[in-house]
Amino acid sequence: MWQFIKLLLASWFSKVLLLLGIASAVATYIPRLTLPVWIPSAIMMLAVLVASYDVFKKQQHKIEVLQARLASQAKEQPLSPGENKMRQILEWKGKGISVRPLERLALAGIGFSGSGEEVQFTVEDCTQFFVKLGYGSKQDTIPLQRVEISFDNEENRLRLEVRAR
Q1: pTM tops 0.85
Q2: The CA-based dihedral angle spanning residues 8, 12, 13, 18, taken in that order and rounded to the nearest 10 degrees
Q3: In angstroms, what is the C-alpha Rg of the chain?
Q4: Strands in 29-156 per DSSP E
Q5: Residues of the chain whose pLDDT is less than 50?
Q6: Spatial distance between the Cα atoms of 102 and 112, rounded to a whole number of angstroms
C-alpha cells in the first residue's frame, strides 16, 4: 500500500496535480478569478487515474512475474508419500546413513535379528518405489513401502527403519 502511494507521488502527473491544487487554492482566495467548482475535482480525478496507470505500467513486469510464479505454484501437485520419502532420502545420496531393521531380515548380505541394532549403509539411489543401499561392495534394494524415515541424533544422519514385509 505505502509502496504504491510512494510510486504514485513520484509519478510526473502527481506533480501536475500539485500545481493544479495550488492554482485551485489561488482561485479560492482571489475573488475576481472565477473557476467553476467542478474543474479542480475533475482534474484531480483525471490526475489520479493517469498517475495510477503510469505506476501500473512501471510495475507491470514485476506483476507478470509474480502472477506466473503464483500460477506455477498452483499447478504443482502435492507430493505422494513415496515422493516425499524419495526426496528426503536423495538428499543423503552417496552419504552414510543409519539403517535399523525392525524385524529379522538380511540386507546386503548382513543378517539382522531385529533387536534394534543399527548399521551404517550408503544411499546409492532412490526412486518413489525403492531405495538402493550399499554396504561395502554389496548393494540391496528395499521397497519404500517397507521403509520409515527417522533421524539418528547420535550420529547426526538419516535413519531408515526397515520392516521385513
Answers
A1: no
A2: 90
A3: 34
A4: 96-101, 105-107, 110-112, 119-126, 130-135, 138-143, 147-152
A5: none
A6: 9
